[in-house]
Amino acid sequence: MQRSRPRYNGTAMGSIVLDLRPGLGIGPFSLGMPISEAFAQIEQQPNIYDVVHVKYYDEDPLRLDIVISFPDHGFHLRFDPWSQRLRLVEIFDVKRLQMRYATSLVGGQSTLATFVAIYALFGPTYPGIYDKDRGVYTLFYPGLSFAFPIPSQYAECCHDREAELPLEFPDGTTPVACRVSIYDASTDSKVGIGASMVKACVPPLPADSLYMEEVRVKLGEELWFTVGGQHIPFGASPQDVWTELGRPCGIHQKQVDQMVIHSASDPRPRTTLCGDYFYNYFTRGMDILFDGHTHKIKKFVLHTNYPGHADFNSYMKCNFVIHSSDCSGAFDQDVNASKCAITPSTQWEQVKEILGDCGRAAIQTQGSTSNPFGSTFVYGYPHIALEVMKNGYIATVTLFQS
């Protein structure tokens, strides 16, 4: 499934120039960056990135990469579906994108990325790998590879890793790159085309990084942030939360839909503000609801940030581990693989095995103009309610005391 941004009157196709950084990224897109940061870069330059496709596997969003594609500029950004961090940059049409390396240009319409030109620019390297089934020869540098189509009549020039470099054919011509891959070089993997693309790994995070920090939940009691060590219980004050988690990204009052409260014949939606208010921590993937009278925490809302949900890219992913009452004694232990823990990867059928079958959905939210992705379903249990997407994955988790 893919989502498309509208075209604006902007940069002509193939006319941009992006800095090529082997093993690090291209232009403003750095390997390891969260998908939200990539979208922020795109939004800042709408006249350059004017046509953008977002592709993902709707039925199982953890099975395949989330891909941001720029068809006019000939490249993809591939994000690991679990961590939602950039693992691979793939230039699939080298003639559409001009790259700058040091002070030299390569690619685009004006500077063909020939084998001889690449070899002269990046220097000597080991012989590459020839895929005879695809008819493609791949040349590797640390964190960078170039794929060259080889005409069948010259296939013998590339066999058995004996090709002389730079590669030139008997008629004096040299192949032109058809694909460029940029990937993390720390694992010493050779990433090219086809099956070797899966070897591209996300760079490791710094030891003190708060991105995808594991948040462990004791139902009805508290949240524990494992990197920072903070414990946030129900009933904590805004001052407590501010002290432990820092300034919230946003604060807004909770809205109450009067159509839910009153069985009015008037079908027009009406909302009003109540006294309760949220602290929004978008970079932590959560909201905290305070009671408007007591100013104490009454709810936590945790977001998984899956594509195919209306809130996708509004929050970063919250890496929660929710312990059922059966494993409350294991709160300080590593229970990611435990059968009694719910994580963002847990699907609805597994939730029912852990918490039991609660019957039909308590609430069903329908698709609309503002939410074109269709219905989600909310299931309630003591201390927890789960919003579930049609594919069975959890979209949000709401935690409360009673």
TrEMBL record:
Going by the UniProt record, its keywords in alphabetical order are:
Membrane, Transmembrane, Transmembrane helix
The residue ranges crossing the membrane are 101-122
Please state which protein family the record places this protein in.
Belongs to the PHAF1 family.
The protein depicted here goes by the name: Uncharacterized protein
